Structures are given as C-alpha cells and as structure tokens.
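Weekly modeling sync, notes
Attendees: S.R. (lead), two postdocs, one rotation student

Agenda item 3: backlog of single-chain predictions. S.R. asked that every request posted to the team notebook include the full sequence so nobody has to chase files. The rotation student volunteered to paste the first one in as an example of the format we agreed on. Action items at the bottom.

Example entry:
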Amino acid sequence: MNQFTLKSKQIPLNSSFDVIVVGGGPAGCTAAAAAAREGVRTLLIEATGSLGGMGTSGLVPAWCPFSDKQKMVYRGLAATVFETLKAQMPHVRKDALDWVPIEPEKLKRVYDNLVTEAGAKVLFLTSLADVERDEEGNVTAIVVLNKSGLQAFQAKVFVDCTGDGDVAAWAGAEYEKGDAETGELQPATHCFILGNVDDYAYINGVNLHAENPSSPIHEVFESGQYPGIPDKHICNNMVAPGSVGFNAGHLWGVDNTDTFSVSDAMIEGRKMAADYRDMLAKVQPAAFANAFVMTTGTLIGTRESRRIIGDYVLTAQDYMERKSFEDEICRNSYFLDIHGTKAEQQRGKGSNLALTLYGPGDSHGIPYRCLTPRGLRNVLVAGRSISCDRQVLGSVRVMPVCLAMGEAAGLAAALAAREANNDVHAVNVATLRRRLQEEGAYLPEISEIMQEVNAGE
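Predicted structure, as returned to the notebook:
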C-alpha cells in the first residue's frame, strides 16, 4: 500500500482521567463501572452511539447461559446487568438463567445507568485513531477522532475492551489471529429483528433451531431453493411482543480489523436478513406471513479477531481439565462454541470440540494473567481478545463471561492507578480477588472448588 506522511500538528490533550476504558461493549461497561466504583476518575470511550456492543448494537437476541446448570456463575456486575434487564421483560420467567432473550433498547438504558451511576464519564461516537507508548511499555496517550476532530487523552491505566485488542496491538503487544496455518477466522453473523410476528403462532409453532430435527431449516437448506440461506444456523428468540430476534446464517471471510471486509459483510448481511424474512413467510406463514425486517445490527456479529498474548495463555486443555488458578478473577462454564468453516457449517457441525459440554456444576477459572499483555505496563485487556488459544476462545468470547472479566479488569485498573508506576502486572491479586468477592463475584477458594468436584464424583 502507498504511504502518506501526515503534517505535524498540535491537537487538544485531556489528562483529567485516571483510567480510560476503550470500547463500550459488555466488558467495557463493567470495567468502567468497576473502576469508577473504586473512586478513580474514569472515562469510557465508545465508537457507536450506545453502550452494550453485541447485545445492543449487534442485536444478539439472547444471553448465553448464566448458569453452570446448577447455579449462576457470572455474578457481581454481570448479574446486576442480567437481572435488571430481565425484570423489565415480563414475558421472561423470573427464574430463567439460560438463553434469556435480550430487548436491545432496554439493555442500552441498563448499561447507561450502570456506568453513569457508578460515576464514569461516557464519550460516544468516538473512534480510536492512534496509540503512543514509551520505551518502558507505558501507553503515554491515545488519539481519538470524533466530531470535535482529533484529540489526545492521557491516563494512568488503559483498559482495552475494543474486542479486537486495538489499544494493545497498536501499542505493540504480541497477538495471534485466526487459524495458525490458514489464518481463517470463525465466520461472522449479521443479526436482525423481524417485527409484526404473530406471537401465538411463533410460540406454539415448530422450534426453528437446527438442533430440532423437525425444524423446517433442514429442508429449506437441503432443497437449494433458497440460495440466500447459507446454512442451518438459525438461533432465534422473542425479544419483545411481536418481535423475534435472529442470530442466523454465517458470513465467511470477515476480518473485523479490515473495514472494507466488514463493510462488504454488512451489505451482504442486510440482504441475508431480507432473504430469511421471505423464506420464513413461506415455510411458517402462521407466524411470519406479515412480518417485516424491523432492524439489522449496526455492528457485525464478530466471533473471532486478535488474541493479545498475555502473561498466561489460557488453553483448551485448561478448559478440559476444569482448571483452577490462584489468580483467577472469574469462573466460566460455557461450552467450546466454535463456528467452523463453510463446509463444516453446511454439514451441520463446526468442529470436533464445538459440542464439548460441561456437566452440571462444572466450570474453569480465568486467571488475571490473561488480562495483562506482555510488554505493556499500564494496559489491561478484557473481552474476546484476552490471552487464550483459538479453541478456548470459542468459550470465553461470549457476553456473560465478558461482563465478569470486565469487572475484574476495571477493578484492577483502579488498583494499578493508585500505585506509583501504574504496573498492571504488579497488582495485588489477593486484594483484587477479595474486592471482587465483596462485590458479589463468584470466586470460590480453590479448596472449595475441589470439594465440589470431589462431591460430584
């Protein structure tokens, strides 16, 4: 690519914050709330006009499970977000913990309140443009772009919740992305909502999910009569009366760090949403004959991007062993949900580990060291870009665990911001874990976990 040299220029500098969180998805929201809760001056920077990421702008229609099939394992601020939204959705059972629908507009307000009531400041419609660092691995400033032009921000600690590890990667952190041999990434999905759905017919009609052998999606795909339907993936939930959200179909070859790639995918995704509406109106007319595409996501549903290399790399083997760590900052029980190649998905399976499920009560720990990028002193990472291998990414990338990781990252950032050198690697993990426990996080002592495992045997 040809290069263009920018003219040197002075831009406004804001140094009034102790902690800056970049990215207002689930991890970013809980990170900002947790940092501000500790009394440090906190700014949350978000590229879109609302908080929530995949659950709001991305229109993912349901939460992945909050339980390990026995109890809620994503607690603290994660539980606050989950229960606050659920209380505003009267069609959802009060005791529901798994695959609970999301009404995106209500969730936006939940996140607004969570962050602002904790005392954090929010800056919307602002994109990261550059990252400056020194020789010691300190990010000295970030440059952002919004309608006010280019601006620089300095802080003691930065929390990268961009989902793509932009802050860490642009600061020079090591990272991996995609398959080690081919570079292939998990496919994306462009979620959408159909409105004017007949509630009674939808609720009492055939389950559309591909796990149901009687779902019409099998015949639809295998008939070849609907070329706009790429595979059998068709998760769906009633997100509000008359409104059904869809996480359906796949878009292969999408790289969320390549804006041209994402732009092409969004155009194709909107076309795909219309194709799904037309197909459902024909095969399930009682529910969908009068339905219309109410909205499509303003974010593409990205499942995989950069994985920042940290002080520890979580592995699929750790997952299989239900491993615990002395520095773990949350527990995770979601299965290895890996969306595979086009050929694999069209055959109806993602990968050999895609259906690896834990038993009731099973979970594994995520160590704090997965949030601390090697080579950077004052940067933490939370969300799908934490330090992990590609297989276990299929488990830790989803919203409930991102909420839990974000709270830990924000609290750790506040602790580091109070120290002279702001070194996130030197945070007292015992203090971090104790504060998380005081705020309601599910963080049993290692001995307690082993007792549960032994009792289960």
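Discussion: group reviewed the output briefly. Residues 329 and 408 are 6 Å apart (CA to CA).
Action items: rotation student to repeat for the remaining queue; S.R. to check formatting next week.
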